[in-house]
Amino acid sequence: MAIARVTEIISSSQTSFEDAVQKGVARASETLKNVEGAWVKAQKVIVKGGKITEYRVNLKVTFILTE
C-alpha cells in the first residue's frame, strides 16, 4: 500500500504561468523523491508600472513516501 504526502510550494516565472508550473515541478523533483503529480492552487501576477513582471503559482505537489 502506497502512502502519499502533499506539500505546497510557490514558483515564479517572468514568462508565463505554465513556465512557473514547469519550474516548480522540476525544482520539487530535485528535492523530493517519487513526485507523482501537482495541481495549481492559486495564480497571481506581479505588476510594476502597469505591466506584468512576474507570474506566480501556488502548487500542491504529491509524492509517494518510501519505506
Uncertain regions: pLDDT < 50 for 5+ in a row?
none
**Mean pLDDT across all amino acids:** 95
Number of helices: 1
Give the helices and strands as they follow along the chain.
EHEE
Shape: elongated
Q: Strands of the largest sheet, in order across it? A: 1-3-2
The major β-sheet equals:
3 strands, antiparallel
Task: Please indicate the percent range of residues in DSSP E strands (runs of 2 or more).
Answer: over 45%
Estimate percent helicity: 10-25%
The beta-strand count equals 3
Structural class designation: alpha+beta
Give the N-to-C terminal Cα separation: 11 Å
Gyration radius, in Å: 14 Å
Report on this structure.
This protein has 67 residues and is α+β, with helices and mostly antiparallel strands. The protein contains 1 helix and 3 strands. It has a 3-stranded antiparallel beta sheet with strand order 1-3-2, covered by helices on one side. It is elongated, with a radius of gyration of 14 Å.
Would you kindly provide a brief summary of this structure?
The chain is about 20% helix and about 55% strand. By secondary structure, the chain is an alpha+beta fold.
Fold topology:
Blueprint: E1 4-13, H1 17-31, E2 35-48, E3 51-64
Antiparallel strand pairs: 1-3, 2-3
From the structure above, extract its key features.
single chain, 67 residues, alpha+beta, 3-stranded antiparallel beta sheet, 1 helix, 3 strands, 22% helix, 57% strand, elongated
